[in-house]
Amino acid sequence: MTIQASLGRLSTWSEEPCVSVYLPVERGEPANTVATSLLSAARDAERSLVRQFSLNERDAASVVAPLRDLADRGVDVGAMPSIGLFCRGGEVEHCAVPRHFDGPFVSVMRRPNVLAMVAGAQRDIDHAVLGLNRKHTRALRGGAFTHDVLEVHMPTEGDLAVSHQRGLAHHGGRKGAGAIVGGSGSNEHLDDALLASFMREIDRSLFRKLDSRDLPVVVVGVEYEVSAFKAVSTQRNLLLHACGSTERMSDVELHAAGQHRMWQYADQRVQGALERLRDLGGTPRVQPGPKVIQTDASKGRVDTLYVPERLVAAAEDDESAAAAEATLTTLQHRGIVWIAPDKDLACTTALLRF
Known about the structure:
By secondary structure, the protein is α/β, with parallel strands linked by helices. It has helices at residues 3-10, 31-52, 57-63, 65-73, 115-123, 134-141, 192-210, 223-232, 251-279, 290-298, 318-332; strands at residues 18-24, 82-88, 91-96, 105-109, 128-131, 149-154, 158-168, 175-183, 217-222, 238-243, 286-288, 302-308, 336-340, 349-352. The strands form three sheets. It has a six-stranded mixed β-sheet, with helices on both faces. A four-stranded antiparallel β-sheet has the order 3-2-1-4, with helices on both faces. The longest helix is centred in the C-terminal third of the chain and has 29 residues, at 251-279. It is globular.
């Protein structure tokens, strides 16, 4: 289930209390490992229910019973980057959540805590990763990171491997296509003219697959490959990452290099959003404080909500609960939510619509 669909369902949950669990997992992680983490989260939730909602131990165990049942049945991790679980009144909802934290956390509030979902999705921007040598092609065809690999005929250099993925934009969780592309064979023997021709064909094939020239494209390769592609590409949003020698890098390292470059871009987008907030500071459109914000969010007045990162996995208190509630309500009304570094944002702040 997509983040947008999950948020739609979660927004109707009014019965309290609600247990929210975030479990970071690796692709292919053994089911018993996930089950152990889930059982540990259920025990933490029980203690929080007793402490925060004054439930007796039997009633607390009843609330988290669906989490224990799910652990007993086994969670199909598949290609999930991580898992978000929301439990209340004998019902549990779980969905894939873009990974953002290294460790799990449990939150017990009156409404679902969706901040971790938003924080992860903020980095999972629709994009493509373009690898300009045979190592990326080998990784693609081996299925190490992607799936649905297609082959496109390349006149000068064999085939081009293209793998389509699904991304989730942070604003409302809208779906979009992403891809990782790898050129097959080595480019070292090509003269400048032939290399340029090869790069143009890659650029044309990339556009045919993505049907966009504005999608961010992370370009990974050795310096001369990256420079050659930059010189001929018609893509408007290139994020370049030149490696010293990709032949000495493992497939995992090569993939991580592209991911790191994409995360840098995601962080730049957050800073751009914060700059907009600073420009409008002191005007009636900027409203600080989660309790004040919730009134505006419930009426659909919030255009953009800014939440300090410390509140995402914070201990349950009035501030974090209010921020989670405002986030859920803002997304319900098709607003945008940014999770910002603590050094740049003192408290939850709203930018109101005109």
